[in-house]
Amino acid sequence: MHLIIPESYAPKLSVKETQAAIRYIRETFQDEFGDQLNLSRLSAPMFVEHSTGLNDNLNGIEKPVSFTMQDMGGSTMEIVHSLAKWKRVALKRYGFELGEGLYTNMNAIRKDEDLDNFHSAYVDQWDWEKVITHDQRTEETLKDTVRTIFKVIKHMEHEVWYKFPQAVHHLPDEIHFVTTQELEDRYPDMTPFERENAITKELGCVFLMKIGGPLKSGKRHDGRAPDYDDWELNGDILFWYEPLNQRIEISSMGIRVDADSLMKQLKAADAEDRLKFPYHQAVLHDELPFTIGGGIGQSRLCMLLLGKAHVGEVQASTWPQAMIDECEAHNIHIL
């Protein structure tokens, strides 16, 4: 069990007030976010059929919660890890045009997650996806979209301040762009996590780019599934989080693979067996739109804006009793 206890932690909202703030943040953010990126809200599945290849494989080692469906011939269904691939298929299925997109409330179970202040077995995020052209598969498109998301998050700080002035956690005024290779060059003797902490503490908010492929050292900064993000055109939005004295990841996003990058990355990940799935065949044959998309953590955003010490203060999940007891002893009230 890895748990950070901030010194003299005193929550500024009661549990009841926190619940009201959670509702306000979630409802307000998704409306503004959808408007700014031209996204429509869609319903989405909690589970997908294994044979479609639509589930997010994350780092490739996490096993999804699964079950068999009696009325579907015993087909294996998997609780989603995220909707990274499903969204791209949905954009085609529902006839979204260039410049249009979707977002959805995604609820997932990640049973292999290491539980700590930021990580839960229950994942709730706004999963989103937007249609672009092949010519828009560029770093500038990615950066422009990141700046828009940052602007919405920054505006939410002011909205929360107006409603809950005693609780709001103040955010930096600017987001900076850094690549994983630049971090390795700058901090060669640090671990990837230590590098993220160092650069985010210095700059306040960072979009860390190009995650998944090997660096000059031959090592990867972090794992990424090879079949949704293009590893050259993706990244994470990280904020420095004073209450816990480390960075907090709010979003993972990227421009999605085309046929060439899919083949290159599947080969690099020794995952060419996935080419048997309908989703991967559709990408190879240019049957799906070119897209950009990602996920924004709902509980993480609430935690960030309200200055909470533990994600369990803003979501109901399951935790080791020892963690619950220690949190309670330090005024961290787990829902």
UniProtKB/TrEMBL annotation:
Every Aminoacyl-transfer RNA synthetases class-II family profile domain range: 23-320
UniProt keyword Transcription regulation present: no
InterPro entries membership: aa-tRNA-synth_II (IPR006195), aa-tRNA-synth_II/BPL/LPL (IPR045864), AsnA (IPR004618)
Subcellular location: Cytoplasm
GO MF annotation list: aspartate-ammonia ligase activity; ATP binding; catalytic activity, acting on a protein; transferase activity
PROSITE patterns assigned to the protein according to its UniProt record, in alphabetical order: AA_TRNA_LIGASE_II
GO biological process, one term: L-asparagine biosynthetic process
Superkingdom of the source species: Bacteria
EC annotation from Swiss-Prot or TrEMBL: 6.3.1.1
Entry annotated with the keyword Amino-acid biosynthesis: yes
Pathway given in the UniProt record: Amino-acid biosynthesis; L-asparagine biosynthesis; L-asparagine from L-aspartate (ammonia route): step 1/1
Transmembrane spans: none
Reactions catalysed according to its record: L-aspartate + NH4(+) + ATP = L-asparagine + AMP + diphosphate + H(+)
Cellular component, GO, one term: cytosol
Main location: cytoplasm
Pfam families: AsnA (PF03590)
Gene3D superfamilies: Bira Bifunctional Protein, Domain 2 (3.30.930.10)
Key words, A-Z: Amino-acid biosynthesis, Asparagine biosynthesis, ATP-binding, Cytoplasm, Ligase, Nucleotide-binding
NCBIfam families found in the cross-reference section: asnA
Protein family: Belongs to the class-II aminoacyl-tRNA synthetase family. AsnA subfamily.
PANTHER family to which the protein is assigned, alphabetical: ASPARTATE--AMMONIA LIGASE (PTHR30073)
Protein name from the UniProt record: Aspartate--ammonia ligase
Taxonomic source organism: Levilactobacillus senmaizukei DSM 21775 = NBRC 103853
Originating gene: asnA
